Amino acid sequence: MSVTPPRHGHAFAAERPPDALQRYSEASRLTHWAVALAYVLLFCSGLALFHPFFFWLSGLFGSAALMRVLHPFIGVALAVLFFAYASRLWRENLLLPSDRRWLRGMLGYMTGRDELRVEGKYNAGQKLMYWSMIGFVAGLLATGLLLWRPYVAPAIPVDGRRLAAVLHAVFAFVMFVGIGVHVYAALWTRGSMRAMTQGWVTRRWARYHHPGWYERETAGEPPPDRRESA
Amino acid sequence: MALESLDVRRRSASETRAPDIRSRQEVAKLIDISRCIGCKACQAACMEWNDLREEVGATAGAYDNPADLTASSWTVMRFFEEELPERGLQWLIVKDGCLHCSDPGCLKACPAPGAIVQLSNGIVDFQQEACIGCGYCQAGCPFDVPRYSPKDDKAYKCTLCSDRVAVGLEPACIKTCPTQALSFGAKEDMRALADERVGELKERGYGQAQVYDPSGVGGTHVLYVMPHGDPALYRKPRDPSISPLVALWRSTFARTLGAVTMGAVFLAGFFHWMKVGPVDPDARPEGGEEKRS
Ligand code: SF4
Ligand code: SF4
């Protein structure tokens, strides 16, 4: 009487249910994780350069001198991958009137009460994250390029390099906060991680978090009672 | 002076304080521009002692040779022709190189622990084995001194012959100067000597003469006697100090703020999870997910 399907119904590592919805394509997932990997490497090396307390992180790269050489190359790789990835998503991240409503109710969502109806594939929080990441990656790329020794830095006036260094550090820390929220939100909304690792979400997940998207994805399907019994 | 040359007073990218219980004898080099004849003996002596050889280059039609400091020219004579209102054409010869600041911007900016050290006698020394070639020291220096070697991608500059000073010798440039334009000794003594020379210059009609020991960087361990006074004539900043941008960027405040920000993100996530827990529509009763406010 006690052990019944509900527990298995959403067992976390379960194989893909036949009626799962595809949320992220394989190409998106691979690009996303390549960007994430580059970000981790950049963050560790940047932190080692920023604060002596974290200088030991340079050991992850073999030596500090090698780390200094690699950091800008990884940065350029991240920017290229990120913009390739982001350029395919901009349309779905345009802010809609319904997003303003969602943002007003965000506090309730964050404290675990119910979420306001989301129309798009992404909610307003995700959209704002998207646009701020575009800004920060561009800012970090631009300021980082100015500091790139030996290729670019020697041609930049010293005051330009000083300003670039300060802005680079500021951008990096604000971006860290953004990425922190992004990772946390993914862990917090169960099922999101699986969507980004395996690509699919359950119908209930889609109905709950992105009803507008769900309705568009499933439009034209036979009514649910017939599908579920099949 | 030997002991002071071995003690490290400050180390780049290091938070803890260096031992400084002993009183320290600071050294200084005095460059009296009024006595310099631009013979470049000091430049040659520097290369000899430090075993450096400059690439053969082309002259730009001036006596400056090489035209700028490089990774293997740690001191360079610069020649400036100036038309001065009262004195007419003057030839100003400036021995350029690191000034060994008491508050070195290069050291402040360097992210590699121990790549730049300040010895307790005031000498600022680069330790190339710890240098990672990032170029931050260049952004930190108010005098545009550190230079890179394209060969090893590491920063170099005048060491004030820290190796010679450590064993009681004077720097190679001092040793070789034929006109006593260069002197070396305790900083106090050099300061007194510089003031004396300025007094002499004033008697000879150089009313503007002054010592260059800029307080914006806490004073330097290379002093200039400038006969015409204005540092700008000698292409030295009038009032040098570490750029406020560098001071902000490498400050304990910014570093701490950065670390605290990161810690706050982790803590906020941790406590939010503990309070709210995950959102899991799949675990809700069937149909419950459609409920909307
Ligand atoms: S002159 Fe420049 S390189 Fe020399 S100690 Fe001062 S800041 Fe450092
Ligand atoms: S390049 Fe300059 S700032 Fe960078 S590690 Fe070397 S000495 Fe330090």
Automatic annotation (TrEMBL), chain A:
<keyword id="KW-0813">Transport</keyword>
<dbReference type="Pfam" id="PF01292">
    <property type="entry name" value="Ni_hydr_CYTB"/>
</dbReference>
<feature type="transmembrane region" description="Helical">
    <location>
        <begin position="128"/>
        <end position="151"/>
    </location>
</feature>
<protein>
    <submittedName>
        <fullName>Formate dehydrogenase cytochrome b556 subunit</fullName>
    </submittedName>
</protein>
<keyword id="KW-1003">Cell membrane</keyword>
<feature type="transmembrane region" description="Helical">
    <location>
        <begin position="33"/>
        <end position="57"/>
    </location>
</feature>
<keyword id="KW-0249">Electron transport</keyword>
<dbReference type="InterPro" id="IPR051817">
    <property type="entry name" value="FDH_cytochrome_b556_subunit"/>
</dbReference>
<keyword id="KW-0408">Iron</keyword>
<dbReference type="InterPro" id="IPR016174">
    <property type="entry name" value="Di-haem_cyt_TM"/>
</dbReference>
<feature type="transmembrane region" description="Helical">
    <location>
        <begin position="69"/>
        <end position="90"/>
    </location>
</feature>
<keyword id="KW-0472">Membrane</keyword>
<keyword id="KW-0349">Heme</keyword>
<dbReference type="InterPro" id="IPR011577">
    <property type="entry name" value="Cyt_b561_bac/Ni-Hgenase"/>
</dbReference>
<comment type="similarity">
    <text>Belongs to the formate dehydrogenase gamma subunit family.</text>
</comment>
<feature type="transmembrane region" description="Helical">
    <location>
        <begin position="163"/>
        <end position="187"/>
    </location>
</feature>
<feature type="domain" description="Cytochrome b561 bacterial/Ni-hydrogenase">
    <location>
        <begin position="23"/>
        <end position="198"/>
    </location>
</feature>
<keyword id="KW-1133">Transmembrane helix</keyword>
<keyword id="KW-0812">Transmembrane</keyword>
<dbReference type="InterPro" id="IPR006471">
    <property type="entry name" value="Formate_DH_gsu"/>
</dbReference>
<keyword id="KW-0479">Metal-binding</keyword>
TrEMBL record, chain B:
<dbReference type="InterPro" id="IPR017900">
    <property type="entry name" value="4Fe4S_Fe_S_CS"/>
</dbReference>
<protein>
    <submittedName>
        <fullName>Nitrate-inducible formate dehydrogenase subunit beta</fullName>
    </submittedName>
</protein>
<dbReference type="InterPro" id="IPR015246">
    <property type="entry name" value="Formate_DH_TM"/>
</dbReference>
<keyword id="KW-1003">Cell membrane</keyword>
<keyword id="KW-0411">Iron-sulfur</keyword>
<keyword id="KW-0813">Transport</keyword>
<keyword id="KW-0004">4Fe-4S</keyword>
<keyword id="KW-0677">Repeat</keyword>
<feature type="domain" description="4Fe-4S ferredoxin-type">
    <location>
        <begin position="27"/>
        <end position="57"/>
    </location>
</feature>
<dbReference type="InterPro" id="IPR014603">
    <property type="entry name" value="Formate_DH_Fe-S_su"/>
</dbReference>
<keyword id="KW-0249">Electron transport</keyword>
<feature type="domain" description="4Fe-4S ferredoxin-type">
    <location>
        <begin position="122"/>
        <end position="151"/>
    </location>
</feature>
<dbReference type="Pfam" id="PF09163">
    <property type="entry name" value="Form-deh_trans"/>
</dbReference>
<dbReference type="InterPro" id="IPR038384">
    <property type="entry name" value="Formate_DH_C_sf"/>
</dbReference>
<keyword id="KW-0472">Membrane</keyword>
<dbReference type="InterPro" id="IPR017896">
    <property type="entry name" value="4Fe4S_Fe-S-bd"/>
</dbReference>
<keyword id="KW-0812">Transmembrane</keyword>
<keyword id="KW-0479">Metal-binding</keyword>
<dbReference type="InterPro" id="IPR051555">
    <property type="entry name" value="FDH_Electron_Transfer_Unit"/>
</dbReference>
<keyword id="KW-0408">Iron</keyword>
<dbReference type="Pfam" id="PF13247">
    <property type="entry name" value="Fer4_11"/>
</dbReference>
<dbReference type="InterPro" id="IPR006470">
    <property type="entry name" value="Formate_DH_bsu_Proteobacteria"/>
</dbReference>
